[in-house]
Amino acid sequence: MKQSEQSGGKARGIERHTMGASGRDTLLFLFPLLFLSIFFYFPLVSILNEGLTDESRRFTLNHVAAVLTDRYSIRVILFTVEQALISTAASVLLGLPGAYILARYDFRGKSIIRAVTTVPFVLPSIIVVLGFVIFFGNNGMLNRSLMATFNLEEPPLKVLYSMRAIILAHTFYNFPICIRLVSAVWSRVNPNLEKAATSLGARGMRLFWHVLLPQIMPGILAAAALIFIFCFTSFAVILVLGGGPKFTTIEVAIYRYAKVSLDLKAGSALAIVESFLSVFFMYAYIRLQKQVSFAEEIQLRYEKKKLVTILRSPKGALAVFYLFVTFMLIIAPMLAAVSYSFLKRSGWAGRTTFTLEWYRRFISELSSGALAVSYRAAVRNSLFFGALTVLLSLPLGTTIAYITTRKQLPARGLIEAFAMLPLGISSIILGLGYIKAYQSLPVDITGSWYAIAFAHTVIAYPFVLRAATSVFRKINPRLIQAALSLGATPWRAFWRVELPLIKSGLIAGATFAFAISVGEINATLMLYNPQFTTIPIAIYRLISSYNFFAAAALGTVLMAICFAVFLLIDKIGFEVS
Amino acid sequence: MSLILDKITKVYPDFFIDVSLSAEKGEIITLLGPSGCGKTTTLHIIVGFIPPDTGRISLNGRDVTALPPFARKVGLVFQEYALFPNMNVFKNIAFGLRMQGWSRRDTEARVRGLLELIRLPRYEARNVSELSGGEQQRIALARALAPNPDLLLLDEPLSALDAKLRNQLRSEIRRIQRELELTTVYVTHDQEEALAISDRVVVMKDGRVEQAGSSYEIYNRPKTRFVAQFVGITNMLPARVSSTRGGYTRLSSPEGTFLTNYHGSLEKGQKVTLLVRPEKCLIGGETTNENRVMGRITGCEYLGDSTIISLTLKQNPFTVKIFGPLTCKVGEEVRISFSPEACWILRD
Fold it and tell me: Shortest CB distance from A486 goes to which of B15, B68, B96?
């Protein structure tokens, strides 16, 4: 007992009086507190207030009750859950063989496959949508090549604007998450357990069912929970690929309430219901994730078999086939988008020809087609918001990480939960909160550039927080003690010893925040005015007006930005999930 | 006195420190005790990471109690080296000099000199991650010595190293400390290490000083049962004083009567504990030793240079250490003998 207190004291080691004045501490707390209060909690409370009061500002549950009894809302909620469940099941089933292969086999290109599983975390949803429309669309690549090959009059595959499209897109988007999380757990399973079970007579399915599955189940559940959350709050995919009231999810319904029918009461009530659910799912995910990381860390690893040596066996051939198909599944829509960006078509059924026309438009400042701004301005806006997001989320996330890892705090768990809550609230709801919260104030910030920047910061900073927390935890407190004993003031110790060591983590977090901002469409769509059109918004507008070729060019630029981010993160080795 | 801790206290919810100690210029003192006894906390109070609740710390006549760690001029070496991973050997050693604003030329000369002192010349450009544990610890020592500290603190500096290297580095530290005449506080839980390296050993228990003295005193003249048991193996037999005369004390116990040369003041009939170190006993053979007692062998461990024999007397277990091999049979009755000079008495 004393022992643990002692070692706890040792680990922190440095007490308050050496860490500088308490005035500086107050400032340290004040910045994140103010920022989150104004740009996250105030909007959130505004939604609660709007959804839980009547016209005369009295508390009522009528609006929430209406949402839970209204036929339209019930259908929307049920559909949201249904598509998320099916998408999750499909993603997990498609991902599990990949998890097995990555955990058990060694082969050339494995690091590439592993890196590709980061794609869902970095790739903006609008790119997935774009790739799908171009690849699977009625007039898309797949149908065109099938029609050309088999001399068909009609496109044989009608995938878009249906439940199938939603499930397919979600599965494509999310199954790499399953590969990533489950293979990590799977490769940590103690191989001696399996040997022991085999020596006791367990084989085949029984070995899997009784010995392996219980070990990897927490990993599967954690992956499923995360995928479910992503699908549950998915927005752009549903908005474009679902279309129509039949395939409306809660997110899309809130968006329509806020931007089309301007019914903020109904929107807020629905938002309250959704937030309850999403925070609950998030909580479940965090619990499961903890279980996974608490699983005993062992040195023993499976002896990985060489995939090549077993290629001749049916199992090996199957594995290679799986890898090929899934790799293509991830790459094909993106490749389709890239190749489309160099093409144009004269008329609906005309021939496609090579062109650089779309890229030429990036040079011009003229606004074009369905957009109020030029392509160049869209790129500029995106980079501008991305940079602002980094500038704001980096100090915000780092400060909170510093406080939660270094300071003696009462109710640490509660403070951490408050800091992480933005992860559990969808960005559509955040946008709705801004609309509602700042409607009544003298300055309406919706439609302003700073509203978008603040929203992006709230969405992105938890990732900075996570990256910074993990690097702060990794630093041996003795290093700082050593610096202090050698005559360095706390500030110089931070600057010369600590900062160089946390730099790479902070860069990873900042890069990730940048990627999130550049790819963000949900909150942006709620808040932007045409002047601040970003790349994702521009792509969305162009898809809506069926200008897929132009959309593909912007999509290619966005992919290039995200690819650079992806390379950087992969190099630094930041765990994104 | 170079270092004085004057009635230092620090209270935690379930633990407290209450320590007074001092070290002379050039002296090496060891804080010895089991983990959780407060030795590292005491060290952190000295260096300034933990402010004491009451008491005064003075270093070469300066009162440093209120000074932050970076103003105390105290060098610190950790168990796990704690070299800055983002710096090479040169930059690690030069860190403290840089904080003091040394010139480039002086810094280079100083680092070169220190590398020679620790016998790792021309290591400047090495990356710390490519060094062995022993090398890393020597670099850590050089880093702590670089800014000419008034006091050197070593917190279990050898615990992370293997046995052979530990002994080698131990004498190395001793040599350097002597050469520099540097007042040093050394923390360890290893009694052999403490006895070997110290001018004075301070045995700690539950946040207090249990006994302070030379290695010889701590080993041969323990003041408490805890010190006797913590430092080496010892035999303990409960007894009563039956007579004291001419510098000798005679004890009686259920195991027999014993003559000791203890000449502290003791009352006749007083309850005491007789202490005998295992290596001061003999087994069997002809002997002139006054104290003889029969025991049955329960176990025998041959260690190469010595043999440890476990026995039971009438009531108490007993251990004897013989140098060299000994053929012994478990269950055999043998005679154990030891001289009056081998005995020490603890008052209960």
Answer: B96
- What are the chain A neighbours of B74 within 8 Å (beta carbons)? 485
User: How high is the pLDDT of residue A308?
Assistant: 59
DSSP collapsed to 3 states, chain B: CCEEEEEEEEEECCEEEEEEEEECCCCEEEEECCCCCCHHHHHHHHHCCCCCCEEEEEECCEECCCCCHHHCCEEEECCCCCCCCCCEHHHHHHHHHHHCCCCHHHHHHHHHHHHHHCCCCCCCCCEHHHCCHHHHHHHHHHHHHCCCCCEEEEECCCCCCCHHHHHHHHHHHHHHHHHHCCCEEEEECCHHHHHHHCCEEEEEECCEEEEEECHHHHHHCCCCHHHHHHCCCCEEEEEEEEEEECCEEEEEECCEEEEECCCCCCCCCCEEEEEECHHHCEECCCCCCCEEEEEEEEEEEECCCEEEEEEECCCCEEEEEEECCCCCCCCCEEEEEECHHHEEEEEC
B68: closest chain A residue by CA? A18
Sheet holding B282-283, edge to edge: B282-283, B333-338, B291-302, B306-312, B317-323
Which neighbouring-strand residues pair with B282? B337
The residues near A141 (Cβ < 8 Å, ≥ 6 apart) are A134, A135, A336, A339, A340
Say if residues A337 and A324 touch (Cβ distance below 8 Å): no
B82 Cβ under 8 Å from any chain A Cβ: yes
pLDDT tens, residue by residue, A241-257: 876 778 889 999 999 99
Neighbour tally for A49: CB within 10 Å: 14
Burial class of residue B198 (count of CB atoms within 10 Å of its CB; 0-12, 13-18, 19+): buried
pTM of the model: 0.78
Interface contact flag, B82 A482, Cβ < 8 Å: yes
> Tell me, what amino acid is at A254?
I
Looking at per-residue pLDDT, the higher value among A28 and A516 belongs to: A516
pLDDT digits (tens, 9 = 90+) for A458-468: 999 998 998 88
- With a CB cutoff of 8 Å and minimum separation 6, the contacts of B293 are B255, B256, B313, B318, B335, B336, B337
Mean pLDDT score of chain A, rounded to an integer? 83
At CA A156, angle to CA A154 and CA A160, rounded to 5?
Answer: 105
**pLDDT grade for A294, boundaries at 50, 70 and 90:** low
Asked if B67 is an interface residue toward chain A (Cβ–Cβ < 8 A), one would say: no
pLDDT tens string B298-330: 999 998 899 999 999 999 999 999 998 888 889
What ipTM describes this predicted complex?
0.83
Is residue B49 less than 8 Å (CB to CB) from chain A? yes
Query: B51-86: buried (b, 16+ CB within 10 Å) or exposed (e) per residue?
Result: ebeebebbbeeeebbeebbbebbbbbbbbbbbbbeb
Q: What is the pLDDT of residues B45-75, one digit of tens each?
A: 999 999 999 999 999 999 999 999 999 999 9
The helix-helix angle for A449-474 and A375-406 (nearest 10°) equals: 40
Instruction: Establish how many alpha carbons lie within 13 A of residue A494's alpha carbon, considering only the half-sphere containing its beta carbon.
Output: 8
CA distance A503 to B86: 11
- What local confidence, expressed as pLDDT, does residue A70 receive? 86
Q: Is the dihedral of CA B44, B47, B51, B57 positive or negative?
A: positive
Most confident of A114-128, A158-172, B35-49: B35-49
Among B51, B86, B143, select the one facing A501 at the smallest CB separation: B86
Q: Which is it for strands B151-155 and B184-188: parallel, antiparallel or unpaired?
A: parallel
Alpha helices in A2-70 (DSSP H): 2-12, 22-36, 42-52, 62-69
Question: Least CA distance to A499: which residue of chain B?
Answer: B86
pLDDT value for A13: 39
Listed residue (B42, B332, B331) closest to B185, CA to CA: B42
> Cβ contact (<8 Å) for B82 and A489?
no
